[in-house]
Amino acid sequence: MGLQKKDFPELKIFSEMFGRQAEAIVRSPARVNIIGEHTDYNDGFVFPASINRSLRMVAARREDRICRVYSTRYDTTVEFSLDELKKTREWTDYVKGTLKELFARDFPVGGFDAVIGGDLPVASGLSSSAALELAVSACCQTLFGFEVEPWEDIKLARRAENHFVGVNCGIMDQFSIRLGRKGHGLFLDCRSLEYEAVPIPEDELVFVIADSKVERNLGNTEYHARQKQCERGRLFFKSINKSLRSLRDVSEDLLIVNRDKLDPVIYRRCRHVITENKRVIKAVEALKSPDMKLFGEMMNISHESCKNDYEVSCRELNILVELARKVPGVLGARMTGAGFGGCTINLVSRNRLDEFQDKVGRLYQSSTGLEPSFIVTGAEDGVESRKL
Ligand code: GLA
User: Is the whole model's pTM more than 0.90, yes or no?
Assistant: First the structure.
């Protein structure tokens, strides 16, 4: 059916604010990573999906090279010229970074007025940043009448984050948001970029995302530190055998044999990446069987590995996971995304949904003082836009 005007309250805000009608509407979903954490920048495997929370953007062209962008979330309007895209360490960097990348490829972008709203949580590890990058790209394509091929779009958005924003993220988030498919998880090989949309049986089971309400503050520093540690591991294995191009090529046996030669921290980081890749493959096979119990087990072990070997979890995420696992009908629970706060993802029987939210909500609050929130979601389509 495509995008419906009635689902865009931002249209009214746009006309009140700019005194004219918007010309384009965009919906750009958040993503959740089901399994395959911190593997994307190691040439590994991931299995994310788009979810039912989205950023919405409405916009109209201008005659000049000015952009005025109002954010409902921050209740501010930011104005800048396309000829002067400067980093300010705010949310607008994602907008400017994407515009800069579009220019670098000679796409004909002009000035515009826009309102950005939606219902996706920010700083929760659900990739609101990639959602914004892809929304801006989709919006410009619709407004100015050009088309960016999906993989070019994905890489362009990632470059905006790597180069302009300064976060050296992998490709998973932009990929999942651009190519998300309703009812499917996306099994991606981050080296070859081949992917497969795998149906997720949603009749009896459902994914519940639990937001710990701990913002991912330390996130980027630690994220980059993990990348450096992986690089040390990679260089070690490459020095043994040149054909080992990344941790993805290292077997568990080879890792174990070399245990004493590696710094213990590097050893554990490598073990996470190497075993997590195997878990993604096993989980996807389990899903196809379908063996949802095994799928849930892979999620559980993934969490333990993120917590103990990769050390990207935190107290609150661990509490959420432990509480979830005590609820009957929960097949798997793990932290999702970069870590250090944000969300967990839980595979829950539909008939236990209320009990899940009630028990986990209450007990989490009494042990942390924080009130979690829940998103019950299936897999949804990726970014969409259209002209009005
Ligand atoms: C963030 C990054 C992704 C990925 C995850 C961890 O979301 O943007 O590229 O590395 O962390 O799996």
Answer: yes
